# Entry
Amino acid sequence: MRRDRNTDAAVAHLARDPVMAELIEAFDPPGWSVSEDLFASTVETITGQQLSVKAAASIFGRLLALMPAGKIRPQSILELNEEDLRGVGLSRAKTRSIRELAERVSSGEVDLEALRTLPDDELVAHLVQLRGIGPWTAEMLLMFDFGRPDVFSMGDLGLRTAVSRLYGVDRDDRDAIAAISERWSPYRSSACHYLWASLQNKPRTSEGEIST
# Structure
């Protein structure tokens, strides 16, 4: 993992917004990084859908314990049966999603590394074609694993709640929230960090997204 070189520029840009300036004073700056192992990161993100941070970490830790040398690899996933995966706490749907991802990566049908060069919209379009990855999950991957600096997840209820409280708009008024988020471009990912921090929350769950 590496530190995002744009952190200082993002903070300076966001501070032009008086509301964001107060959050910047109150909370630590973001520490975005780029994943060196996109397969493992994607498995971890799918694992964490609709779970608390603690529960997600516990399940992922049990999954890691089944992996040779504690490394999540496609072939190691495929060597486990459904009962093994369900035994660590994965739902049936997440088990199917993770096994299918392992199959497609192992066969070469999906090359996660090749996606690094795609623009954000094309990257999301590719990711959502994978079982268990909806728009919210794709956007979390863009932020936290692909290191993209300008992502705002409209499907994240926490983000919309934070904007609603801080800017006095209805959290279901997506047009108004989208307009506000444009102020933070091209550093909307860092804005999300501060919005989540204002809720004392972490980005692990979304509004209604599940692994199918």
In short: DSSP finds twelve helices and no strands in the chain. The first helix runs from residue 7 to 14.
